[in-house]
Amino acid sequence: MSAHLPDEAALLACGRAVGHALAGMPNPPALLLSGELGAGKTTFTRGLVHGMPGGELAQVASPSFTLMNCYPTRPPVAHIDCYRLEPEAAAAVIPDLVDEAGPGALAVIEWIERLPRTAWPDPALHFQWIDVAQGRRFTVNALGCALPLSVASALAPWHPGA
């Protein structure tokens, strides 16, 4: 499935819709975000956190220097960034960070492409950001699970041809 987001407002709204869709899942799949610098990964995550119960006022920022920011949403969100990690280090530390977030937490991992695929969490939804002339575009692929209907429905307004 793919989505086209014409501006930052749409990017935030899409994130909120996905966050709302995932909030009701007892064990949500990890969200794996890949794409160039400035593609919209952190902005999407800000919308996602704001769309979840308890996240309305959260100050969402890139965890590039802290590796992980946790947000008091329901379920809790563990926002992880692999940008500054070497692939081997990232593969070693990411599972520990996901575990540290606690059972039932939603892991959102930016720069997942820095990890070998064998180290990617499973099940997961891989959001791959693609450069386009205007706005943002991403594809979503389910890994080790089916795309939850609630997430597909949340993305429908931004699906090309919708």
UniProtKB/TrEMBL annotation:
Chain segments annotated as coiled-coil in the UniProt record: none
Which InterPro entries does its entry note?
Answer: P-loop_NTPase, T6A_TsaE
Alphabetical UniProt keywords: ATP-binding, Cytoplasm, Magnesium, Metal-binding, Nucleotide-binding, tRNA processing
Where does this polypeptide localize?
Cytoplasm
What molecular functions are annotated in GO for this chain?
ATP binding; metal ion binding
Please verify whether the record's keywords include tRNA processing. Answer: yes
Broad class of the protein's primary localization: cytoplasm
GO BP annotations listed: tRNA threonylcarbamoyladenosine modification
For whether the record's keyword set contains tRNA processing, the answer is yes
Q: What family is this?
A: Belongs to the TsaE family.
Kindly provide the name given to this protein in its UniProt entry: tRNA threonylcarbamoyladenosine biosynthesis protein TsaE
Q: Which species does the entry assign this protein to?
A: Megalodesulfovibrio gigas (strain ATCC 19364 / DSM 1382 / NCIMB 9332 / VKM B-1759)
